[in-house]
Amino acid sequence: MDSLKQLDERHRKFVEERHWQKHQSPKNLAMALTAEVGELVEHFQWLTVEESWNVSGKKKEAVAEELADVLIYLTRLSSELGVDLVAAAHEKCERNEHKYPVEEFQDGDRRPHEYKDRDKY
């Protein structure tokens, strides 16, 4: 499987075979996505910054599983809403490139929330 569309089709089939489609509303998918993000966060809770960069072994496997859950619910939600997730992400990147001009961040010390956009979006 090498595309979000293929992943979504695989999971859609999984859902249909189990007659779970009635539970796949955007509201429920968004809530499930939020729950999975929470489960992902739990793996990093209480780690130092350095430890968070170096997860390995069973912990890395668990993180990968939660990331997969997040991706599955995200692709299902976008599919149910008719949103091309890749196109939307590219559009968001373009807006961010304009909103946060590279020349404003050359010192490497400013964070996005510290920059006040001159051209309000």
TrEMBL record:
Instruction: Enumerate the CDD domains for this protein.
Output: NTP-PPase_RS21-C6_like
Coiled-coil stretches noted in the UniProt entry, renumbered to this chain? none
Report the SUPFAM superfamilies cross-referenced here: all-alpha NTP pyrophosphatases
- Region Disordered, annotated ranges: 97-121
PANTHER family this protein is in?
DCTP PYROPHOSPHATASE 1
Protein name from the UniProt record:
Nucleotide pyrophosphohydrolase
In which organism is this protein found? Pseudodesulfovibrio nedwellii
